[in-house]
Specification:
Blueprint: H1 7-11, E1 17-28, E2 38-54, E3 59-64, E4 69-74, H2 83-96, E5 104-110, H3 120-136, H4 142-156, H5 164-171, E6 177-181, E7 187-190, E8 196-202, H6 214-228, H7 249-267, H8 272-288, H9 295-305, E9 310-316, E10 323-329, H10 333-347, E11 355-358
Parallel strand pairs: 3-5
Antiparallel strand pairs: 1-2, 2-5, 2-6, 3-4, 6-7, 8-10, 8-11, 9-10
Helix pairs in contact: 2-3, 2-4, 3-4, 3-5, 4-5, 6-7, 7-8, 9-10
Protein name: Galactokinase
Organism: Pseudoduganella buxea
Domain GHMP kinase C-terminal: 273-343
Amino acid sequence: MTTVLSPTAFFGGPPRVHAWAPGRVNLLGEHTDYNDGFMLPIATPQRTDVMAAPSNDGRFHLYSATLDAHVEFGADEAAPPGFARYMEGCIRLLQARGVAVPPLRMYVRSNLALGTGLSSSAALEVATLRALRTLLAAELDDVALAQMAQQAEIRYAGVNCGIMDQMASSLADSEHMLFLDARTLAHQVLPLPPGAEVIVIDSGVPRKLADSKYNERRAECEAAARLLGVPALRDVTDLEQVDRLPAPLKERARHVVSENLRVLEARGGVEAARFGELMNQSHASLRDDYQVSIVALDELTAALRADPEVFGARLTGAGFGGACVALCKSGSARAAGERAVRRMKEGGGAAANATLLIPAHG
């Protein structure tokens, strides 16, 4: 039996710097970021911490307390696949900006559940870059940091992701929605609908984004935009325009266009009941047009919608497993989430292993 190293044991004393970044839950605007579209994420209370100090042997040493995994590589070597690849991407991209990054010891710990669609990878990237920014006094604002984190995931982890996760981890908090425009990177902090709070439940089915059909969906959207003669699907605002596309491009484009419209309506300020309706519409669109839902997520969101304290529920994240998010009446989210989990366990269906992840936001 192994013993997880403490930071003191790993560094031989206190670390030089300690940074952290949250995960995110997306309330509306799924699969719109890589289409230059609009999103409404909120940060999670759960987070990833990264500590760092110079290495004394000329090699990088990266340790994940969450995985109890220690990786090392030389200054001119590539990190092996896994958590270290995301961190190495941050290091290499910072070096490409002209920042001298010496060999380091870096310690990671997180209470973000992996594979649930809460952007544990973005939190790791943003926390890593925050630690490096502090340690090396690098000039890097929060938007530029998010952009670098995105490129680390694309170029070093092989996931052709949009910008939403990194922007939310870098800029959002757990009490407000963050409106994001993926094309301009304009952002705006907004309150949740009055009388509402958020709960998140893991379906119990892990999601592996790099192994999913995420990249396939992105390619389909790009193909749809080319056929419609626009730079990106964000530039289509009339749903009738997508009707002439062949399947499945028509369905993929219909989801993106309708999802952008839902985000823009919610940004304008709607009551909690209407916001819930928009979330329900979003899940149906992700299930039917974008085909990224699974039975466990459908069962779980249906159970939540049946609860009188729930305004609406949808999958959150890329889909293919992971978690769902629900908007509930203030003061009732935890109880509603617990009821849904209990029904799933008693029913023995695809979401029988569902667990409550995030308590209500105040």
